[in-house]
Amino acid sequence: MSDHLKTALNLAASGVPVLPLRRGKVPFGNCPTCTGNACGGRPNMKTPGPCHCAGVCHAWAAATTDPDVIASPAWAAAWRRTVCIGYHPGGADLTVVDLDDADAIAWARTTLPATRSVATTRGEHWIYRGAVASRNAVRPGVDIKSTMSYARYLGPGTGTLADLPDTVRALVVKEPPAARPAAHAAVVPAGVGGECPHRTPAYLARGIAMAEQRITEASSAVHATVYRTFLAVLSRHGRCGCLTKTDISRLFTAAQSKGETARHCADAWTNARTTLGL
Asked: CA angle 118-89-33, nearest 5°?
């Protein structure tokens, strides 16, 4: 039995839903049957829903505390390729405040109550008791990982778990976009067509292709990469009506090929629109 599998079983025994993570610290992608969530996906880690895939197939939604599943033959190949263990904080009634740099850590130390913490490659995870909606980039260098998300297990950490503070809960609340003034009619010079210039096939197609490439080439921080890419696309094309359902589907498909769920994609898209006031 590998060390990763032993650790995963110990975490599961303590009530923490786990899943193996592959190279790039991302979940294993869909199996052929479940590609693109054609199976219907898994709405949460407790209710498989229409998908009965026995493998590690739906990112955070595959996380489980069932030792028979974790040590099953269907998961064996994944454990052989695992580089680290992931867990679903919300499934254990936990929230991880992911602090990516020294500035974010300094903000937490002056703003949030002390709690259990564990060092990461670039910063720290502060772990609180209590679940909340997950949201990336709630402030510079700070992501919130809880429900419908996963975090890397980096050890037991130090300190005593504190209850989730209202400060963190407030960070994930999506504020409605501010009302925008009524648009004025555009003045189109004589001889110039009124169609949006972004609709030129080459311009829009190149932008979508570059966005797809940015997502599919991400080797780490996939959640953040997807959100930032969506934000970039919407900042360029979100206000002029250029984007079609086909364009958005291409971006979602690229994200799902990296292990993101359809719900994660929808949440990231909505968060990006909210940030831009669309």
From this structure: 125
Decide if pLDDT at 180 tops 60.
no
Residue found under tokens 């989730």? 164
- 91 token code pair: 């499934």
- Flag whether the pTM goes above 0.85: no
End-to-end CA distance of the chain: 51
- Residue 212: the pLDDT is 85
pLDDT at 50: 58
Phi, psi of 173 (to 5 degrees): -70, 125
SS (H, E, C) the chain: CCHHHHHHHHHHHCCCCEEEEECCCEECCCCHHHHHHCCCCCCCCCCCCCCCCCCCCCHHHHCECCHHHHCCHHHHHHHHHCCEEEECHHHHCEEEEEECCHHHHHHHHHHCCCCEEEECCCCEEEEEECCCECEEEEECCEEEEEEECCEECCCCCECCCEECCHHHHHHCCCCCCCCCCCCCCCCCCCCCCCCCHHHCHHHHHHHHHHHHHHHHCCCCCHHHHHHHHHHHHHHHHCCCCCCCHHHHHHHHHHHHCCCCCHHHHHHHHHHHHHHHCC
CA 274 centroid distance within chain: 16
Residue with tokens 């998961």: 75
Rg of the chain taking only CA atoms, in angstroms: 21
Using alpha carbons only, give the angle 177, 143, 226 rounded to the nearest 5 degrees.
Answer: 75
The tally of CA atoms less than 13 A away on the side-chain side of residue 124 is: 18
Report d(CA 142, CA 136) in Å as an integer.
Answer: 7
Spatial distance between the Cα atoms of 155 and 84, rounded to a whole number of angstroms: 11
* Residue indicated by tokens 């880690």: 45
